[in-house]
Description:
- InterPro entries: AsnC-type_HTH_dom, Dimeric_a/b-barrel, Tscrpt_reg_AsnC-like, Tscrpt_reg_AsnC/Lrp_C, WH-like_DNA-bd_sf, WH_DNA-bd_sf.
- It comes from Niabella digestorum.
- This is Lrp/AsnC ligand binding domain-containing protein.
- This protein is α+β, with helices and mostly antiparallel strands.
- The chain has two domains: about 10-50, Orthogonal Bundle (Arc Repressor Mutant, subunit A), CATH 1.10.10; about 70-140, Lrp/AsnC effector binding domain/regulation of amino acid metabolism (RAM) domain (Alpha-Beta Plaits), CATH 3.30.70.
- The chain has five helices and four strands.
- The protein has a four-stranded antiparallel sheet.
- Strand 2 and strand 3 (about 110-115) form a beta hairpin.
- Helix 2 (about 25-35) packs across helix 3 (about 35-50).
Amino acid sequence: MSAKLNLDKLDLQIIEHMMSDAEISYADLGKKLFVSGGTIHVRIKKLQKDGVIKGTRLHPDLKLLGYDVIAFIGIYLRESSLYDTVAKELYKIKEIVRLNYTTGNYSMFAEVVCKDISELRDVLHEKLQKIKGIERTETIISLEESFSRNVKILD
């Protein structure tokens, strides 16, 4: 990604629309934004090349797919210098879907998605606790996700 991106209003409008509906065709998006579908295509390719757009994703209903447990795990490291090593090990645990390096009480904060409590227990006891550098963890189980949304780019 370049040091300074020159994103104009059209780039931001494209990103905003695609975040709410990534399946919209370039032609339809072009009509909404009063430009050609070809212009949309060129702009999206440039945004991808610059690293602004990093692919597209489906957001399935995890409960309908049998994943009933979402938990957040605060991870305390023995030493903050172990972050990179521990992060690489945590990446190998397929149930961890998001990991952040944080300030505050925890060194790291992970989001975990599991089919049931038994699977969460396995992640905690058989996978996570065996990683060298982790001092201890605290687990918070989500009872319900009230909402999830993208950041608002344009006012």
